[in-house]
Write a structure and sequence with these properties.
The protein is built from six helices and 22 strands. By secondary structure, the protein is mainly beta. The strands form three sheets. It has a 14-stranded antiparallel beta barrel. The radius of gyration is 23 Å and the shape is elongated.
């Protein structure tokens, strides 16, 4: 499930000092460790095969490329390609690690997904956004928190609760004010997640998604095939979702001193992939979620003609907001004709926080409601 996350709280990023970086002798787990990969994993190419539970393709196997990931020899995440439904490349994410506790993530989209390397001669002309992440570790070196800052300085928090084996048993996602989603994880005897439950919290919708997994592994102990069955519940109504099978093609470093080019490894992982960028995307939000993302609001003046004729009621205005959060078009979809012009005049001055899908800014459509009361 793709969820467009609305970031709600403002903060400033602070990198840890050199003294903080070396304040403990505990070995901090790498990105590869956090992703629960065993051995010197170099690249992971992930494809998902799904079988729709309804619709014209019900029961048919549809296989799509989901993600390609490159790790450095030290286990740090280097870059990824993220795909939207396998039909197009949504983004290319390139990591720069300032320290073990802080990193910068540059996200490219559009023609930027064609660049094989993290930098290039035309890098500055590519559409991109820069995110910063501050990582917190517990006393055993396990990652316990990620604070993420977008280009506007907004923070999203990911908090992890771990068991005595260092495995994540709970993950919460939100901001300083509220949790937007919460996941809990149960493990089998081999140490793989056999049940994953996500609770998504919105203004008017409460949805839960439970997935149960089975695995096939390679000789190193990493899973290369995972089958999952999904059950969803929306506002108390439960239904069975799509059955999915996830495949991973994993390449390993030959040794800790493996000097083969990372660019060559990336080329092998992306071989045969049509790096077609996704077209600009517009998503629709519910009215409550949409209004919560507003950073500037203006209430309408009561039209004199409506006062004279004692006309009251609500006006619903539908807005289209661009990638930066500015209103680019609007129309009234409900309300008395005498009240609509005032509502539209106020609505066009609203501003919103940017919305990201897979860390790419997208346009949004939503509604705001004005109540005119005598």
């Amino acid at each position: 499930m793709l969820v467009a996350t609305v970031l709600l709280a403002f903060a400033f990023f602070q990198s840890p000092s050199a003294g903080e970086e070396h304040s403990t002798a505990v070995t901090r787990k790498t990105d590869r460790d956090h992703d629960r990969l065993v051995g010197p994993v170099r690249t992971v190419r992930t494809e998902v095969e799904r079988r729709p539970a309804s619709g014209p393709n019900k029961g048919q196997a549809i296989r799509e490329l989901k993600e390609i990931v490159l790790y450095g020899a030290d286990g740090r995440l280097m870059q990824t390609l993220d795909f939207l439904s396998g039909s197009c490349a949504m983004s290319r994410r390139v990591m720069k690690h300032e320290s073990a506790s802080s990193r910068t993530e540059t996200v490219y989209w559009g023609k930027g997904v064609f660049e094989k390397e993290g930098v290039g001669s035309n890098q500055e002309t590519l559409p991109s956004a820069t995110f910063r992440q501050a990582l917190t570790f517990d006393g055993a070196g396990n990652r316990s928190e990620i604070d993420e800052y977008d280009p506007k300085g907004v923070v999203q928090k990911r908090l992890y609760k771990l068991d005595d084996k260092g495995r994540v048993i709970e993950e919460t996602i939100g901001d300083a004010a509220a949790i937007s989603s919460k996941g809990t994880f149960r493990y089998d005897d081999e140490g793989f997640v056999d049940e994953e439950t996500w609770l998504y919290l919105y203004t008017s919708v409460k949805s839960t998604e439970v997935t149960r997994f089975k695995y096939d592994t390679d000789s190193r102990g990493n899973w290369i095939k995972r089958t999952g069955s999904v059950t969803t519940s929306i506002n108390g109504k439960t239904e069975k979702g799509e059955a999915t099978t996830t495949y991973r093609l994993i390449e390993y470093y030959e040794s800790s001193s493996d000097s083969r080019s990372e660019a060559a490894a990336w080329g092998r992982a992306t071989a045969g992939v049509d790096l077609k960028p996704c077209e600009p995307i517009t998503i629709r939000k519910s009215g409550g979620v949409f209004q919560q993302s507003a950073v500037k609001k203006l209430q309408p003046s009561y039209p004199q003609v409506a006062l004279d004729n004692r006309i009251s009621g609500k006006v619903v205005v539908e807005l289209t907001v661009d990638e930066s959060g500015k209103v680019v078009s609007l129309r009234s979809v409900e309300g008395a004709p005498e009240l609509r012009p005032a509502a539209e005049e106020a609505a066009k001055h609203w501003e919103f926080r940017p919305t990201y899908l897979m860390k790419v800014p997208v346009r949004t459509i939503g509604t705001i409601t004005f109540n005119f009361t005598l």
